[in-house]
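This section describes the prediction task in plain terms. A model, or a person checking by hand, is given the sequence of a single protein chain and must write out its three-dimensional structure as a string of tokens. No templates, partner chains or ligands are provided. The sample shown here is typical of the held-out split.
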Amino acid sequence: MNKYLIFLLFLGGCATVDSRVYMQDQLSVKKVWLVDFIYDSGSVEQLQKNSGDKEVKVVSTGQSPSDLQLRDDVFFLLQDDYGVSVTKDASKATGKILLHALHFASGGFKRLTATLESMQSETIARVKIENGDRNATFKNDDSFAKYAAKSIANTIAGQ
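The expected answer:
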């Protein structure tokens, strides 16, 4: 097999970042970012009454331990490694980094979407971070958190 083809196959499975900035002027303003989840976790139960009418019951189950760890890792990596001003107190924030993680069925993070918003919920930027899909390029939870924090910090810095 051609070495060039092997190299292309290897690159095809690497983690990737797709960063879109919608309001560059908002990124250049010094912000204190709240790091949180874009959606509240929950599950939906469907109950059926004897008469055939359906009743829907929404039950909140909270975030998964791996999602909570990812959020905390991203928070501290942004703060400690990249000098991004972050807070856990919404009243002190001037911007939001909202996370939405998807997992592989077999475990591990498949994708993380980080939406950067103003406090008025205007979308400033969106960063989609895809994990590798092959054994050689798959990032474990710790490596994926580092990769995600770097990608978010680069977007904030305009890189």
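For orientation: Confidence is low (pLDDT under 50) at residues 1-12.
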